Amino acid sequence: MNTSSGAQELTTTHQYAIETRNLTKTYKAKTARFDQGFSIFKRRENRTVKAIDQLNLQIRKGELFGLLGPNGAGKTTLVKILCTLLPPDNGTATVNGFDVREQSMDVKRSIGTLFSIGERGFFWRLTGYRNLEFFAAIFNVPRHGRGERIMDVLDLLGLKDKAHEHFQKYSGGMKRKLSLARTLLADPPILLLDEPTTGLDVISSRNIRDFIRNDLTRKAGKTVLYTTHYVEEAAQICDRIGVLNKGKLIALDTPNALKEMARKGEIVEFVVENISDNQVNVLRRMGGVDVVTAEVLGNRVGKTRLRMRLENPDLLPKILNYFFEAGIRLVNFKREDATLEDAFVKLTSRGAAE
Amino acid sequence: MKLQELEKVFYFMKRDMIAFSTYKTNMILMILSALFGALSYAFLGSNAQMQSVLELYNMNLTTYLIIGIAFNTYIAQSLTLVQRTINPWSLEEVLVSPTRLATFIVGSSLWGFVWSTGVIVIYLAVGILAFGVVLSVNIIGTLLVVALGIGTFIGFSMAGAGVLILTKQGDPVTTLITIATSLFGNVLFPPQVMPFQLQVIAYFTPQYYFFTTIRLVLTGSPLITILPDILVLVLMCVAILPAGYLTYSWCLKKARKNGTLSWF
After folding, report:
1. ipTM, 2 decimals?
2. HEC profile for chain B?
3. Which end of chain A is more exposed for a tag (fewer CB within 10 A), N or C?
4. For the whole model, what pTM was predicted?
5. pLDDT in tens, B129-161
6. How many beta-carbon contacts under 8 Å exist across A and B?
């Protein structure tokens, strides 16, 4: 990958590509006006929401770091702080060794940012090429060779043939690829990719993931912060994963280590008939049963799949006994290996309970 | 229409009303615009106008109106130029690039000025060719007055855009400037046709000085004779332009801090 642009001159000797210390961001939220009665002049209640809460995070250079979290966990807020769009309230954040508050221009020269709905920032009546030409100029891509650089990036993402088509005619996958192309224009050493595959079909998602893993991190050595709420997606490509919930980092390790964390104990899955919500709650409150997810099976009337993690295998007879006493018919049962999703559910549900 | 369908109609209206009422500033400004708009047209139709134009500017009503309307289009465009750049999505994309705020504002506004200049040329050409408007352009004076007008109104435009970033719909600055322009700005009628108290207000608005001086430099008045009015315009421009920039950057900073930049 071409690394001839000015951004590379910003490479520093700083140990981490991204580092945050006690980073905190709080939002003030108002209640909706009509939720408090029918008056447009009535004062609304203010409440405070901690989007990022004392976050300490280090991402190494050249690492593909996945930030996993449910909706509202603070992933986008963190990306917006790191790209200097949002000032933090407390704590520090450095990107490529530059402080996001004090050295924002250097931070901007060091990063490429893809927002989750970044395609809205394009000019729909311009061609893909003309859009990138504009962004290349504002991202300081040298005028000499700018055209070649744009075509190189388009070629890299398989959009060269569509360069001179209007953006509004692009498919969803092409628009997302063009967003990714925009982040690569200035060849920055660090990429902040906020849910880059949201809304894409399976093939497009896989293509983009492969491109990020193989071309951007393995071949070009870029540092990538990849946020997603798709657990398996993070597991497939990331070197390390941080799990964010309610603004706090509740776990940080490799995908395999996180799976191991969920593996402690026993993962069991039952398919049962005629179980009520109250009975599921009884299971949830049972000592030693850590997590219970209940999924009503759409194709079979009255059947529910229960997935739970037991602290020790001795609890299994207790559960079977409960089924018998409550008149719940067991249709199927199996033991399973823990997945990263189990780890994620375990971690985030623990956070929710707290 | 079935009752169920009527209920749906009601819920469509309710949805829009609730959404509209969240833009309280916009609602109040729309009401104010309607009130002052009616007042402006009342003065436009007054008999005193023709007499005043002839006495004060030594030009016929057609010339007076053509210049007024042409440059009012220019001013109206200028007022909303910066606002049009704050599409929340493209704004975020630009703000994460290593681009200075002043570069962004000037760059985003430039095409609007080029286009507006073209529109003025069309207005004046139609005036000259179809209505016999006679112009004797003082080029230096015109460039000076236009530059001062642009500076002043870009200042207002930045202040308005800044407020809009916070209010999300409807900014009081632009609405008040538009109202002041139509009422006191010497666009379609001289302030002298209004009651004395309103005339006094006109002398505190840059619009009055801009439209007065642009008419005079386009019809051949020597710069020296309108120097006092130009000096007032210079002072206003020097005060309003930086004030507008500071307002814009303050509002932008506040929206970024609150995380409401992309809320529209």
Report:
1. 0.74
2. CCHHHHHHHHHHHHHHHHHHHCCHHHHHHHHHHHHHHHHHHHHHCCCHHHHHHHHHHCCCHHHHHHHHHHHHHHHHHHHHHCHHHCCHHHHHHHHCCCCCHHHHHHHHHHHHHHHHHHHHHHHHHHHHHHHCCCCECCHHHHHHHHHHHHHHHHHHHHHHHHHHHHHCCCCHHHHHHHHHHHHHCCCCCCHHHCCHHHHHHHCCCHHHHHHHHHHHHHECCCHHHHHHHHHHHHHHHHHHHHHHHHHHHHHHHHHHHHCCCCCC
3. C
4. 0.75
5. 888 888 888 899 999 999 999 899 889 989 988
6. 60
